[in-house]
Design goal:
By secondary structure, the protein is α/β, with parallel strands linked by helices. The protein has 14 helices and 17 strands. It is globular. The relative contact order is 0.08. It binds iron/sulfur cluster (SF4).
Length: 463
């Protein structure tokens, strides 16, 4: 979601004539789009902005801003202790950023030209003279429809499409309802138009994004023929000619009704991958988290999804060390994870977020215990992940080539429909760089030769 919001902000600046540069030291404007979902993300954002203060001293004309969830949660308090920060913009105001940046640049220019500015004064005081900041963390009706422009690179195979904002679920550990507001959805026609435009620019795969994506449109649009607005949207996007693959993330188990399971079984462009957050395998902890399903219901749902589509990959999110989680609660989580055999899982140590009910619960768990459970669960997850990847060795998989591998630019990388990363050489034969570039954005059949813990490696089959 943050990546997508950053693309939108980048697009709005580029259309005004700004250029993207490779490093902050070359920039006149540095905007950090922040995450607040765990304390570590907050601390990273604050630490990074603190380090940027050095640049501000050397080049006082620079503009520095915080955007996104931490900006929304902390507002003007972010200006305290970070005197070089000029801009704080919340999650419903990304479309205003370009105006604000323009305004700040103009103000700084005017101030710098003011004859009264005493250049003999120490730099800190001069920065005070120039201080003018903008904080905008207000709600704005219709803001969910403003994340719709894409800043595509020349060769790009996949894109995110933001279909809704906010969440009304109020899981007791989660800060998202505070930072992203209540659920608001874009219209189906607006989303389909964006996907059509993406496909006309060479995009082959889109991922529909929402904090609670499968409950899309439940407040705005009616069911039609027993189908939820989300299933109606899937069907409409599925119709877009030239689109090869369709993904969505992240759903909530309680929004997984029969119409969605049926869509998984009958819409071929929907890929064989569902990310289905579990959070805990203990019913006591699920209740305390306000998750509104039981471990048994979750397991039943996994079985229904697996029956609906053969070979479908299921990944998940799990929190360990939620307040009150005993050894026995943790064991129930680990047992369920073993039983389900997830393709992969993001395991998080519980991180108290301010103004959330769980942060005030008794029986907060010691960090060492959280860490032990985290490591232990990761081993369990890695085992099933490794087994699933190894089973693919010798098989042929369809890969959508996304570009050069991050760790070896000589190789290409892409993903299978089940979201497994595959790394492969541009060609078994010698081909020109241009020919190899042509793989990017193409569906390539690859024979898998080996697997490590996280990726597959193979050879493209040129038919
Ligand atoms: S459903 Fe997801 S985004 Fe919404 S409150 Fe729960 S964890 Fe947070």
């Amino acid at each position: 979601m943050n990546e997508r919001d950053s693309e939108q902000v980048a697009h709005s600046l580029v259309t005004r004539g700004y250029e993207q540069v490779g490093h902050e030291s070359e920039a006149d404007v540095v905007l950090l789009n922040t995450c607040s979902v765990r304390d570590m993300a907050d601390q990273k954002g604050l630490g990074k902005m603190g380090m940027l203060g050095r640049l501000a001293k050397e080049r006082p004309h620079m503009v520095f801003g915080f955007l996104g969830c931490m900006a929304q949660a902390r507002g003007g308090e972010l200006l305290e202790g970070l005197p070089h920060v000029d801009l704080v913009v919340g999650t419903q105001k990304f479309h205003r950023v370009a105006d604000y940046v323009d305004e700040l640049i103009t103000r700084k220019k005017e101030n710098a030209e003011r004859p009264t500015l005493n250049t003999q004064r120490p730099m800190e005081n001069r920065m005070d003279d120039l201080r003018f900041s903008i904080v905008d963390v207000e709600e704005e009706a219709g803001s969910q429809s403003t994340i719709r422009d894409q800043q595509l690179t020349l060769k790009q195979a996949t894109a995110f499409v933001s279909i809704m904002q906010g969440c009304n679920m109020h899981c007791t550990f989660c800060i998202v309802p505070q930072t992203r507001g209540s659920e608001r959805s874009r219209s189906i026609s607006d989303i389909v138009a964006e996907v059509r435009d993406l496909v006309s620019h060479g995009i082959k795969e889109v991922t529909l994004l929402g904090q609670i994506v499968n409950l899309y449109g439940r407040h705005e649009f009616p069911k039609v023929d027993g189908k939820s607005p989300f299933v109606q949207l899937l069907e409409a996007v599925h119709e877009v000619e030239g689109l090869e693959r369709l993904r969505f993330t992240s759903p909530h188990p309680i929004g997984f009704r029969e119409d969605l399971i049926d869509a998984i079984s009958r819409l071929p462009k929907l890929v064989e991958h569902v990310h289905l957050p579990l959070q805990s395998g203990s019913n006591k902890i699920l209740k305390a988290m306000h998750r509104a399903y039981t471990a048994e219901k979750y397991l039943g749902l996994v079985e229904r999804i697996r029956t609906a589509r053969k070979g479908i990959a299921i990944t998940t999110d799990i929190i360990v060390g939620f307040p009150g989680e005993t050894d026995d609660d943790y064991r129930q989580t680990r047992d369920l994870v073993k039983q389900i055999q997830f393709d992969n899982a993001f395991v998080f140590r519980y991180s108290p977020r301010r103004d959330t009910p769980a942060a005030k619960m008794p029986d907060q768990i010691d960090e060492r215990v959280k860490e032990q459970r985290n490591q232990d669960l990761l081993e369990t997850v890695n085992e099933s992940n490794r087994r699933i990847l190894e089973r693919l060795v010798g098989s042929r998989v369809e890969v959508l080539c996304e570009g050069p591998s991050k760790t070896n630019r000589e190789r290409l990388m892409g993903r299978t429909r089940t979201n497994k990363i595959v790394v492969f050489p541009p060609s078994p034969k010698r081909r020109s760089t241009d020919e190899n570039q042509e793989f990017v954005g193409q569906l390539v059949n690859v024979r898998v030769e080996r697997a490590n813990g996280f990726s597959l490696y193979g050879m493209p089959l040129l038919e």
